[in-house]
């Protein structure tokens, strides 16, 4: 059993500035950090650190950031496909943090957009019954739809985390087995007809809706240093916990996910905040007590 993640990979640059710039202004700032990011990459990295065979199918550009991304992933237990650089700049998020705690984010999607369906499909050639296709919201609705259709035709299990949200994703529910949404995505997209629905509620916890029941799993109390990547950690560990035990996502999977997400929120950064392989192995061996 293998998880294929089709999505994006980015370089996340965090800059500290006095205030969010006004039109026409020129301001000084400090570059605070540079990290791997992108929801596809985040989720794939954590799944692979949990011991799940993971293929991340995502585009890197032919610039220095593309080279840097590949260097960062050398020690991760996942395969990044294709092993090539696209004739684009790598996708980047510039996160501007102002002194009063506000932020503004600029994200590029040129590399993810340039990765055509025809180029993606060959990387799913050996995907078979029982494998998983996991997607987020960074591809167009058409591309996301076509890939889920292909996965269903192959007998794969489909997992959708429709973030960033697009109202047209609401048409994709008939193709989805497992949906993971936060409260605002749930409200906008009204997920229905899926076998397993998980609705996360930040520091409160998450709901598991499956087998005709609604069960609540409280979050693990954590001193929130930086909540970026909490949702990605939660989803990946929930899925890994269930897959490793050969079951559908259950309350233990959500408990493992909450414990892992609490580690991520307690540390600064995204990639650099994620739990490591040993932490995840220890956490995944815990019971629900
Ligand atoms: P992201 O900000 O990464 O996009 P999201 O909106 O997808 O996150 P959330 O509902 O904010 O997802 O969080 C997912 C899970 O992470 C929660 O269900 C909870 O278990 C955990 N979590 C989030 N924030 C906190 C927090 N402040 N303290 C402890 N756990 C948290």
UniProtKB/TrEMBL annotation:
CDD domains for this protein: ribokinase
Activity regulation: Activated by a monovalent cation that binds near, but not in, the active site. The most likely occupant of the site in vivo is potassium. Ion binding induces a conformational change that may alter substrate affinity.
Pathway(s) this gene product operates in, as recorded in its UniProt entry: Carbohydrate metabolism; D-ribose degradation; D-ribose 5-phosphate from beta-D-ribopyranose: step 2/2
Residues given in the record as substrate binding sites: 10-12, 38-42, 232
Domain annotation Carbohydrate kinase PfkB: ranges: 21-272
Protein role: Catalyzes the phosphorylation of ribose at O-5 in a reaction requiring ATP and magnesium. The resulting D-ribose-5-phosphate can then be used either for sythesis of nucleotides, histidine, and tryptophan, or as a component of the pentose phosphate pathway.
Quaternary structure note: Homodimer.
Designated name of the protein: Ribokinase
Lineage: Bacteria, Pseudomonadati, Pseudomonadota, Gammaproteobacteria, Enterobacterales
Gene behind the chain: rbsK
């Amino acid at each position: 059993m293998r998880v294929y993640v089709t999505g994006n990979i980015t370089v996340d640059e965090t800059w500290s500035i006095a205030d969010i710039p006004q039109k026409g202004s020129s301001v000084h700032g400090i570059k605070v950090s540079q990290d791997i990011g992108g929801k596809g990459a985040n989720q794939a990295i954590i799944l692979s650190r949990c011991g799940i065979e993971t293929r991340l199918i995502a585009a890197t550009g032919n610039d220095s950031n593309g080279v840097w991304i590949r260097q960062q992933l050398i020690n991760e237990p996942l395969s990044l496909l294709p092993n090539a650089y696209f004739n684009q700049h790598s996708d980047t998020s510039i996160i501007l943090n102002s002194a009063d705690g506000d932020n503004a984010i600029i994200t590029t999607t040129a590399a993810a957009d340039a990765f055509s369906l025809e180029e993606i499909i060959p990387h799913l050639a050996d995907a078979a019954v029982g494998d998983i296709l996991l997607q987020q919201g960074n591809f167009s609705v058409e591309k996301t739809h076509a890939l889920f259709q292909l996965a269903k035709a192959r007998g794969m299990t489909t997992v959708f985390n429709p973030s960033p949200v697009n109202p047209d994703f609401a048409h994709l529910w008939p193709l989805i087995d497992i949906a993971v949404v936060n409260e605002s995505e749930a409200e906008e997209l009204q997920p229905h007809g899926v076998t397993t629905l998980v609705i996360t509620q930040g520091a409160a916890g998450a709901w598991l809706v499956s087998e005709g029941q609604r069960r609540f799993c409280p979050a693990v109390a954590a001193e929130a240093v930086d909540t970026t990547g909490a949702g990605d950690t939660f989803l990946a560990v929930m899925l890994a916990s269930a897959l490793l035990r050969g079951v559908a996502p259950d309350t233990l999977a959500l408990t493992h996910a909450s414990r892992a997400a609490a580690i991520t929120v307690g540390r600064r950064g995204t990639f650099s905040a994620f739990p490591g392989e040993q932490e995840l192995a220890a956490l995944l061996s815990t019971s629900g007590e």
